[in-house]
Design goal:
Layout lengths: L2 E2 L9 E10 L2 E4 L1 E2 L14 E4 L5 E10 L2 E6 L10 E6 L1 H25 L3 E6 L4 E5 L7 H16 L6 E6 H5 L5 H5 L7 E7 L3 E4 L14 E8 L5 E7 L2
Parallel strand pairs: 1-4
Antiparallel strand pairs: 2-3, 2-8, 3-7, 5-6, 5-8, 6-7, 9-10, 10-15, 11-12, 12-13, 14-15
Helix pairs in contact: 1-2
Bound molecules: zinc ion (ZN).
């Protein structure tokens, strides 16, 4: 089983690993800092693998595949199990997604608290995030989004520390608001990774986040769309 290094340290930019399997231009490793995607609402990490020869080959996608992570390379390479490689994350891309991802937690918490609105979809890319919410029953949903973005920026500006810890399934299920999420996880999962923004949000979540909300800087509302009664969509990006 591949060790997901980003779950312990979301700020790891380079790592050493041993090749476990090669299939065409897909390379599998004993551990990785590449967050696979699209998964957990986030797009894939990109970056490079440095081969034993010193060659640097682009990782165009990290793909979740049967509980493992396939590092899809721009070209097939001469690697075999047991070879040592160095992984390098495209940090600019990843860090933008970490900021937008953490902001999405705050935005979802604000809309849940005020309207009971649940997230019905979403995708985060480095340049822009989009989230769908069930805002049925909220007449002026556009104003609701605008106010929620203001509130999100106010909370982000409070420099809250984002906590990451592991809980047993039983302990996690006792946290109000987490039940629905945890209930959807496969029964074989014994330990849940919990991401908590104290006083704002607590979720079972496997993805990378920033350590402090002040790193985000703030978000800017880009566009609003209605995709149906239960899917009101907001597009937002980082404040530059
Ligand atoms: Zn998250």
């Amino acid at each position: 089983m591949v060790k997901l290094l980003f779950q312990e340290d979301s700020y790891l930019k380079e790592f050493d690993a041993v090749v476990t399997r090669v299939s065409g231009n897909k390379v599998f490793l004993d551990q990785t800092a590449f967050h696979p995607g699209p998964s957990g609402g986030l797009d894939t990490d990109k970056g490079w693998l440095v081969l034993p020869t010193g060659d640097r080959v682009e990782v165009v996608q990290a793909l979740e595949e049967g509980g493992d992570v396939a590092h899809v390379l721009a070209r097939a390479v001469n690697l075999k199990p047991g070879d040592r490689v160095r992984g390098v994350i495209d940090w600019e891309r990843r860090y933008r997604m970490m900021k937008l991802h953490t902001a999405s937690h705050v935005l979802a918490a604000v809309l849940y608290k005020k309207y009971g609105a649940l997230v019905t979809g979403g995708h985060i890319q480095p340049e822009e995030a989009k989230d769908d919410f069930d805002l049925s029953g909220v007449e002026d949903w556009k104003a609701a989004f605008q106010q929620a973005v203001e509130e999100t920026n106010r909370i982000i500006g409070g420099c809250l520390e984002v906590k990451v810890y592991w809980l047993s399934r039983d302990e996690a299920l006792k946290i109000p608001g987490i039940v629905k999420l945890a209930g959807r996880l496969p029964p074989e999962v014994e330990k849940l990774r919990i991401v908590e923004i104290p006083g704002v949000d607590v979720q079972a979540d496997g993805g990378p986040h920033v350590k402090n909300t002040c790193e985000i800087g703030g978000i800017v509302l880009k566009k609003l769309e209605s995709k149906g009664a239960k899917r009101k969509r907001i597009y937002y990006s980082l404040k530059e």
